[in-house]
Amino acid sequence: MKKKIKVGILFGGKSGEHEVSIVSATNVFNALDKEKYDVTLVGIDKDGRWLLPDQTLLLTNAANPRLIKLNKEKCSVSLVPFEADRSLVAVGDTPAAPASTGRFDVVLPILHGTYGEDGTIQGLLELANVPYVGSGVLGSAAGMDKDIAKKLFQAEGIPVVPGRVIRRHEFEKAADKTIDGVIAAVGLPFFVKPANMGSSVGVHKVKSRDEAAEKIKDAFRYDTKILAEKAVNAREIECAVLGNNEPKASIVGEIVPTHEFYSYEAKYMDENGAHLKIPADGLTPEMTKKIQDLSVRAFRALELRGLARVDFFLDKTTGDLFLNEVNTIPGFTQISMYPKLWMAAGMTYAGLLDELIRLALERHAEKNSLKTSFDPSEN
Fold this sequence. Notes:
The protein is of the alpha+beta class. It contains eleven helices and 17 strands. The chain has helices spanning 18-31, 120-127, 137-144, 146-155, 168-173, 175-186, 212-219, 264-269, 285-301, 337-344, 349-368, and strands spanning 5-12, 37-44, 50-51, 59-60, 69-70, 76-82, 87-92, 106-110, 163-167, 190-194, 204-206, 225-230, 234-243, 248-257, 274-277, 306-315, 321-327. Strands 7-6-3-2-1-8 form a six-stranded mixed β-sheet. Strands 15-14-13-16-17 form a five-stranded antiparallel β-sheet.
């Protein structure tokens, strides 16, 4: 019998997208072929504790996406990377804690948002020399920070929505001046959003000057740096990218929110909050190719690997196309846009996971072929 690949799924995390991560990870766990993979779930609670109890007891309210959460009553452990055998060695703080997470062949970090999508967990896995799905430290960090990502896109000639950065300490010192500067730069209405957050957490549409301060303050609850961007009357277009050195773009889809914009509530709380159209309606072949080409260019500009979902705004009035943002660990439920775009092209959900694991192992082998020490006698 062929030896199973040992897979660890990291999920949860210290993030405003904690609950979304749990739902994605549950879908991934259920879809992985247990004939091919020996799968271990590793939950991280909102305090950063790593939970490794009996796998059947890890979640509570598992059948209800609105109430699902980690079972914090079970054992917690602290982890340190151990490079020699690709393990994350567990140091238990209860007698019930396991001796080790085991030696993973590959890890799927299904961790949306901060401390999971921003390069931090990727750095831990690099130290442990564990192969993992998705982008490395640099790509993850650059993709997470919307300010840095926009600057890299602009350097590559990729069009982005006009906007400006607001830092919390500057706003606290001169709120009125800051608001006046934003309105002068991008007009009303405008959107505010944390620079390092996803799933529309902390995102607000500011329609008048009177409400600007309140909504900016709320965005600052999630980051010390936020973006204020021009409100574009646009279609929300999305494209999935898959690959390492030779990434490929999927067919193009569209999100049609039933709310004013694609908010957190529209994404996760209202089952009728948005409609997914795959493929997107009415795009010319030229526009479709442009979106696909820009998606791959953005993927390369951020030094991404494995997977990413690239989100665009297509102005309904002018037809101008803007790259909104890139998500390096997109939602991965059975009904999420990223897997659905590839499924529409003929891949199965399980087959897509197989390919992502293959790409992770390929990238790891390529990186491990490099020297990490210098011997002058070899030159």
